[in-house]
Amino acid sequence: MRRIWNVFFMLLRRLLYGRIKGLQIGKRVTFHGPALIDIRNGGKVIIGDDVTINSTNRGYHMNMHSPVKLYADRPGATITIGEKSRIHGSCIHAYSSIHIGQRCLIAANCQIIDGSGHDLSFEDVNNRIHTKGSSRRIIIEDCVWVGANTVILPGVTIGRGSVIGACSIVNKDVPPMVVAAGNPAKIVKAAVGFVPTNNS
Fold first, then answer.
1. Contact 162, 175 (CB under 8 A)
2. Which end of the chain is less crowded, N or C, counting CB atoms within 10 A of the terminal residue's CB?
3. pTM score, two decimals?
4. Beta-strand (E) ranges in the chain?
């Protein structure tokens, strides 16, 4: 009986999300719990086939503080989530472009944002609240695993197959096939036989 209800609510959510302008949902996308999808000013959110968007703690291995939030609010802002990726209770906020590749794992409570929010405005700090900041695109390549409570900052590329340790702050590029962790995130391990090209 529970399975029937789950299928019913999944179909209902897909119907409701289908009304959101700028949202493209692929085949067999699964929503667990209600996600917050906020698209404005001609932005786009593109979700590939077989993606899981999980906003519920039930059956998840750790506590999740909030539902998944997909927010594209500037003209032309785009969030792309590749097929078979899983997003758990995290915020993805695009000013310009955030690309998440195929078969990625984004654990709970992560913050992925390609904009600064406000300008520094040291010449007139009273005006800082009225500024919108700049942006630099974020690219998360295929098969990346991002640990819980991680923050990924503007301008970062994370290479294919890499792992970001929980509670890390990623402010520089991470090469493929490494483990990076810490604040700021640095390479702590590389795949056997792989020599990283930098130590972001």
1. yes
2. N
3. 0.89
4. 23-25, 30-32, 36-39, 44-47, 52-54, 69-72, 78-81, 86-88, 91-94, 97-100, 105-106, 111-113, 138-140, 145-146, 151-152, 157-158, 163-164, 169-170, 178-181, 186-190
Residue 189's contacts (CB-CB under 8 Å, 6 or more residues apart) are 178, 179
Q: Which residues contact 88 (CB under 8 A, 6 or more apart)?
A: 54, 60, 64, 68, 106, 107, 108
Question: For residues 107 and 85, is the Cβ–Cβ distance under 8 A?
Answer: no
Taking alpha carbons only, the member of 33, 28, 82, 17 closest to residue 50 is: 28
CA distance 22 to 54: 21
Instruction: Please state, in angstroms and rounded to a whole number, the distance separating the CA atoms of residues 115 and 73.
Output: 11
* 3-state SS assignment for residue 133: coil
Q: Which of 99, 90, 103, 88 is nearest to 156 (CA)?
A: 99
Structure tokens at 43: 């932005």
Residues annotated as catalytic (active site), given as ranges: 118
* Residue tagged 């020599």 (tokens): 195
| CA–CA distance, 44 with 173 (Å, rounded to integer) | 25
Place of tokens 């519920």: 56
Per residue in 9-55, pLDDT (tens digit) is 666 666 677 778 999 999 999 999 999 999 999 999 999 999 999 99
